[in-house]
Amino acid sequence: MKANTYYLVSLGCAKNTVDSESMAALLDQNGFRAVEKPQQASVMIVNTCGFIAAAREESLSVLQELANGKKNGQILVAAGCLTERSRQLMIDNIEGVDGFIGTRRWMDILDLLSELRKNPRQPQFELPEPATIGKDEKGINRVAIQGGSAYLKIADGCRRPCAFCSIPLIKGTIVSRPINLIIKDALQLQEYCTRELILIAQDTTDYGFDLGMKDGLVDLLQKLIPEIPEIPWIRLLYAYPGYVTDRLIDLMANEPKLLHYLDIPLQHASPLLLKNMKRPSDMEWVYRTIEKMRQAMPDLALRTTFIVGFPGETETEFQKLLDFMEAIKFDHVGAFTFSFEPGTSSEPLGDPIPEEIKQERLGRLMTLQEKISLSKNQAWIGKQMDVLIEGNGDGISVGRSYRDAPEIDGLMIVESEVEIGQIYPVQVTGALVHDLSGKIIKSA
Predict the structure, then answer these.
(1) Are 141 and 185 in contact (CB under 8 A)?
(2) How far apart are CA 233 and CA 379, in angstroms?
(3) Which residues of 206-228 are buried (b: 16+ CB within 10 A; e: fewer)?
(4) Rounded mean pLDDT of 269-285?
(5) Mean per-residue pLDDT of the chain
(6) What is the β-pairing status of strands 412-414 and 436-440?
(7) Per-residue pLDDT for 333 more than 80?
(8) Tens digit of pLDDT for each residue in 52-99?
(9) What is the percent of the chain with per-residue pLDDT over 90, rounded to a whole number?
(10) In 3-state terms, what secondary structure has residue 423?
């Protein structure tokens, strides 16, 4: 174990990954060095996830494992979402954590470590509790690079009132980053030869609301795109229902860099349940908007997320969801059973639907989606698509097309070894439920 070494574990979503990379950048700039094993580190940091019960359990488990293996002189820090929301839970359940830093003040990691070193036997539990994510990013790029792709955080926090969601309790309301800082980060990624820029926030379509902007995502894209001519792909994640504007659709349809892919987490299709979830419940808007988008972009890939087992979901309401899926035929669907979250506005509703019914409905939903996804994939056989290569070996390469976001969607298996980090034209030769296979189209 050498001084000024750190081991960092990042749990949860890509937005958490960006925060982890930002903390790592601050440490690197101040003389710290990352190591691959916890026993090699003088400082161990776990950037926790606290979104749902399963994520909380994983965070506590990782922290406990590191605490159990702590050596004299090592510092263990719990950072991130679970720390922000449930600090007392962690204090009560994990012995050996020296410091706590919430997701709203990730940029204070160096200050926390300084205090812990001054008082090694005195755990630091009391940290500032600001109402929103801190804006003082200390010049750190808000990005996470993964091979030829990179996530760029354009905003954090959320002002939506979703009854099931704890994110506003954890993050606070939306805080949008200034356009000039986002462009600065994107220019840096361009220098790193990034091929795919993925813009993320809790809700990308709400970008700029707190800055007095209307339809701010489009304004951002119109200023950003001309600045990064060497980045061929730009992907948008997490669009909120009702906020996919005609301007955004037109820009996606006419700007070659913007991938014809959109993730719109709808959560359900029953207007009654959506109202109880405090989500947009105008299903006519959903049908109209998706039709409009598909008319403008016939090759559009759509992803959504659904919750099954929300309080009040009868078999009739669940069937509405299945019928909706049959009608729309999404390319990708993520589905989860309802997780009871104390402190959210759904708390008074309790968790009345038995777990076995939730699981049975989840199984039926995913079985239906697998049939739809397979049919969608089979329709690509014989066609050509560009593929960003992410790995190779044993005579094959693995990558993704515009239809697939990293970590959550499918892959393309290419029948030869080609260069990682480059985009190649591929002819599709085979299809599975989630993945495609193909061969490189060689230029004449």
Answers:
(1) yes
(2) 23
(3) bbbbbeebebbbbbbbeebbeeb
(4) 95
(5) 93
(6) parallel
(7) yes
(8) 778 888 998 999 999 999 888 899 999 999 888 887 777 787 888 998
(9) 81
(10) strand
C-alpha distance across the termini of the chain, in Å: 56
Check for a shared fold between 5-118 and 143-378: no
Domain range summary for the chain, segments of one domain joined by +: 5-118, 143-378, 384-440
The radius of gyration computed from the CA coordinates of the chain, to the nearest angstrom, equals 23
Q: Which long-range contacts (CB under 8 A, 24 or more apart) does 399-403 make?
A: 399/424, 401/426, 401/436, 402/233, 402/235, 402/259, 402/260, 402/261, 402/301, 403/261, 403/301, 403/331
Q: Which CATH superfamily is domain 384-440 in?
A: Nucleic acid-binding proteins (2.40.50.140)
Q: What is the dihedral angle through the alpha carbons of 79, 84, 88, 92, rounded to the nearest 10 degrees?
A: -30
Q: 114: which residues sit within 8 A by CB, 6+ positions away?
A: none
Between CA 232 and CA 248 the distance in angstroms is: 18
Q: Give residue 103's identity as a one-letter amino acid code.
A: T
Q: Which CATH class is domain 143-378?
A: alpha beta
Q: How many helices (H) and strands (E) are present in the chain, helices listed first?
A: 13, 19
The pLDDT score that the predictor gives to residue 122 is 66
Q: For helices 179-191 and 216-224, what crossing angle results, to 10°?
A: 40
CB of 85 within 8 A of CB of 169? yes
- List Cβ neighbours of 267 (8 Å cut-off, separation of 6 or more): 162, 164, 274, 277, 279, 305, 306, 307
The helix or strand, by DSSP H or E, that contains position 292, with its residue range, turns out to be helix 283-296
State the pTM of this model: 0.94
Residue 439 burial by Cβ neighbours in a 10 Å radius (0-12, 13-18, 19+): middle
Work out the average pLDDT over 387-410: 95
Whole-angstrom Cα distance, residue 87 to residue 297?
46
CATH topology of domain 5-118: Rossmann fold (3.40.50)
